[in-house]
Design a protein that fits this description.
Blueprint lengths: L4 E3 L5 E3 L1 E4 L9 H28 L6 H30 L3 E3 H34 L4 H4 L2 H13 L2 H11 L9 E2 L6 H5 L7 H34 L4 H30 L7 H25 L2 H13 L1
Parallel strand pairs: 3-5
Antiparallel strand pairs: 1-2, 3-4
């Protein structure tokens, strides 16, 4: 495929436009993939929107746990909207070209929202820790001001880091090939196209991944270690089951998201393959956001009751 280029200062032809290969290796399935991804996008939008609506309207859900859940659902809508509309356009038009500015914008928002998700999941784990391990002080600690501060911190903490990382990546020269073997502009496939030595940038990516993936995950593990220890000390099996049910949904989401994300960004470079990277990316960018509303609603009686009341009103 032809692509624009310019002469860099060192007289090296530099790519000005990329091509997202996406699922072009499955030519017979383009129509089916478009239908499947369209359905998934609708499920994500409707499911997460319903959670936002019921947590805002139902008085019984005016609790810190559901305040964080509403933010998490909004985040999922934003996160998946960074990648899925572009996938649908590429499948429909078969024009997979993307300008460098659009690619940088997509990557930047994807990284920032991914960072927010890691931090917000850690905040939600801390909320469950306080609720279960310090129930008498729960409303004192997790007051509205604290909830707002934790949520805003989750949304904005990654912005300067990921904005800076995006600027550094796209200040590189890209030569020889403009084909990104992925369905969106992710940082690792783009680095593969850069000219010259990118080892410093790869180390930076690894350090940032540790900071925003590994550290929140360790904090989540610490919270749940305390939670499990507290649950095991409860006198009755029924009491233990009831308490664990309040945090099992969140724990399942954590395992799904952090598992696929950690394998993608923290595994050694030698073990990376385009097919596996695309599969894992599909999991944490699309599949997990689709299942999150189901996980939280089907395993939470309060959410089911609120949803039933909303639907009956309609």
């Amino acid at each position: 495929m032809k692509y624009p280029e310019r002469k860099a200062e060192d007289n090296v032809s530099t790519v000005m436009q990329f091509v997202l290969l996406g699922f072009s290796d499955l030519p017979q399935l383009q129509g089916l993939l478009f239908v499947v991804f369209s359905i998934m996008y609708m499920i994500i939008l409707i499911g997460n929107s319903l959670i936002i609506i019921i947590t805002r309207l139902d008085v019984a859900l005016q609790k810190p746990m559901y305040f964080f859940l509403a933010n998490f659902s909004l985040l999922e809508i934003c996160y998946v909207s960074v990648t899925l509309p572009r996938i649908l356009v590429d499948l429909w038009t078969q024009d997979r070209s993307i300008s460098m500015l659009d690619c940088a914008t997509q990557m930047c928002f994807g990284l920032m929202l991914g960072t927010t998700e890691c931090l917000l999941l850690a905040v939600m784990a801390y909320d469950r820790y306080v609720a279960i391990c310090n129930p008498l002080h729960y409303h004192l600690i997790m007051n509205h001001k604290m909830c707002v501060h934790l949520t805003v911190g989750s949304w904005v903490s990654g912005i300067p880091v990921q904005l800076g990382q995006t600027c550094k990546i796209f200040s590189l020269h890209f030569c020889n090939c403009n084909q990104i073997n992925h369905f969106f502009c992710d940082i690792l496939p783009i680095l593969k196209l850069a000219c010259g030595d990118t080892s410093v940038h790869e180390v930076t990516v690894y350090v940032v991944s540790i900071l925003f993936i590994a550290v929140p995950f360790v904090l989540i593990l610490a919270s749940y270690s305390k939670i499990i220890f507290t649950i095991l000390r409860l006198p009755t099996a029924r009491g233990r089951a009831k308490v664990f049910s309040t945090c099992s949904s969140h724990l399942l989401v954590v395992l799904l998201f952090f598992g696929s994300g950690a394998i993608t960004y923290l595994r050694p470079k030698s073990s990376h393959s385009a097919g596996m990277d695309k599969l894992l990316s599909l999991f944490y960018t699309i599949v997990t956001p689709m299942f999150n509303p189901m996980i939280y609603s089907l395993r939470n009686k309060e959410v089911i009751v609120a949803l039933r009341k909303l639907l009956l009103k309609k």
